[in-house]
Protein: 3-oxo-tetronate kinase
Organism: Seohaeicola saemankumensis
Amino acid sequence: MLLGCIGDDFTGSSDLGNTLTKAGMRVTQYVGVPDAPAAAEVEAGIVALKSRSIAVADAVRLSLEALDWLRAQGCTQFLFKYCSTFDSTREGNIGPVAEALADALDARQVLVCPAFPATGRSIYQGHLFVADRLLNESGMQDHPLTPMTDPDIRRWLGYQTKGTVGLVPAQAVMQGVTHTRARMLEEDKAGHRLMVADAITDADLITLGQAAADLPLITGGSGIAMGLPGNFRARGLLSATQNQWMGQDGKAAILSGSCSNATRGQVAEHARSNPTREVTADQVMSGAITAQALADWALAQDGVPLIYTSADPAVVIDAQARFGKAAVATRIEGLFADLARALVAGGVTRMISAGGETSGAIVEGLGLAAFEIGPEIDPGVPMIRASDKLVLALKSGNFGGPDFFSRAAAMMEGTAR
Ligand SMILES: Nc1ncnc2c1ncn2[C@@H]1O[C@H](COP(=O)(O)OP(=O)(O)O)[C@@H](O)[C@H]1O
Ligand SMILES: O=C(O)[C@@H](O)C(=O)COP(=O)(O)O
């Protein structure tokens, strides 16, 4: 294994797997820290954690455990993957995890780059944009767990870190690798270990990837991984072979706990011509609905059924005020985990889930160990194979076109491209 990656959620880790696979690496995504060595052919290993919204100390501990395992597999470079919308609270986990990994690796210069231009996320002068809006006007300010109310990534990260945060501005990145490295050195001399790097286009990300060829630790969204496989290839370290992907027939089902703008649009679109069932926070909290009853409903439907708790910001805020933010999230995620188990037990072989925390709960609930990364459905969302009978798509909240759900189900079956 060459590149060792630690993802703070499961959708995001499959997004990273997609980027690395497309760039020619042989990738495996692991569910949590494996207790056995990796297969010899794996070139990039991604340890997917559900550490985005847990307590800081737990996130740091799990990330360091993942690092130890990846080091034991022979990795020479490490990537900490978080969300391209920098999902974290002011007290949150990105800064402490990045600093703990940097300490463990003795890393002096650490890039921080959530940009992912293919999905509209760019960084300019340290400020994160989603398409033509600053992050705090993009809808992310209403996220149920990590509302992003400040677009200045240096400032937000600064709340989370012990050290100060520098900037590698677009003016340096656009002039190429030499200027980028020179600016990184200046930031280092100024005492900034973590440096937010501007990136507006894929070309900027490739430049940053090349500039980071010798850095032990890189952090960011999946975009920052774009340039890394080329560094290993240039050293003659990559095999040219890729896994062969096979579609999966059988029953499909969709579970959505994401409340993002994109997911809510996808839910509305799917509901126009498919069996769809809404579950409210009240039904979950009161125990009025059971996972088995929902599974029985889904398994009795023709077509591709969708079960969702996705709701508008005002509905979410109301539920959180009445039940508590963590309590309602935990109960809903628990329902999805139980539901996923009941669906697979009932014969579902293609499962699509929407939402990072939701997907984490489902994957952990299913007790899966590792994924092979397949072809891309939409930017940032690949199909993944968990076993010879189960194919998944873990959709990040804000990713995917309006008809994502039905298109994903068809592509996973192998009947559409
Ligand atoms: N109706 C609802 N009311 C309150 N919280 C909800 C509701 N539906 C889902 N949630 C919670 O909101 C969170 C959504 O996060 P996540 O699944 O990561 O989606 P995204 O990818 O859009 O961030 C989850 O913890 C989920 O359990
Ligand atoms: O970078 C991204 O946006 C994704 O890879 C990701 O991490 C998404 O997380 P969720 O929106 O919570 O699914």
In short: The mean pLDDT is 96. Residues 9, 11-12, 15, 83-85, 87, 116, 221-222, 355-356, 380, 396-398 surround LB5GJZVW (ligand 2) (CB under 6 Å).
